[in-house]
Write a structure and sequence with these properties.
By secondary structure, the protein is an all-alpha fold. It has 6 helices and no strands. The chain has a single domain, classed as Alpha Horseshoe (Serine Threonine Protein Phosphatase 5, Tetratricopeptide repeat), CATH 1.25.40. The two termini are about 25 Å apart. InterPro entries: Acid_resist_chaperone_HdeD, DUF308_memb.
Length: about 190
Amino acid sequence: MTSHDVNPQTIVIDLPKAWGLVVLRGVLSVLFGLLALIWPGLTALALAVVFGVYALVDGIGLLMDAFRNPDRSNRGMRIFGGILGVAAGVIAIVWPGITVAALAILVGAWALVTGIAEIAAAIRLRKQIEGELLLGLAGLLSAIFGILVLLWPALGVAAIAAFIGVFALIYGVVLIALGLRLRKLAHQ
């Protein structure tokens, strides 16, 4: 067995830990999405702080997964995505006066990298778990969202809030479904 081989039994043992983190990320994403949709007229300052907290927590979750998950094949992408999420969160919290365009670029880059990492993870995990399509779908949604935001960063605050809110809701629901599937697999 090489260092790149993963024992499927090891993954099953660690699934009880992994599913909770995936569901937590999904719930946080849904909450963030609802806030963005309920109050689309938030100022760029408030949106930056809300995004900052979300990205910081999500980035920490990705980093935890990168170091706790026995599948080391795409660890570098998960670490990079986690570091980008933490950095985006800290920047948005420390300097909340950044412009909507700058926030859009941060959100777009973060969503694109996170999406690519999740697509890679889904491809690598397709032999170990069922439901990897949900992870791949979450990654695809994230990558598409990131590209769209990077292409049109000058959208108004309300448009960005609605766009981010819808994305976060869909992304969160997909992550919650994946987490619940992982929980079911862990108990089998």
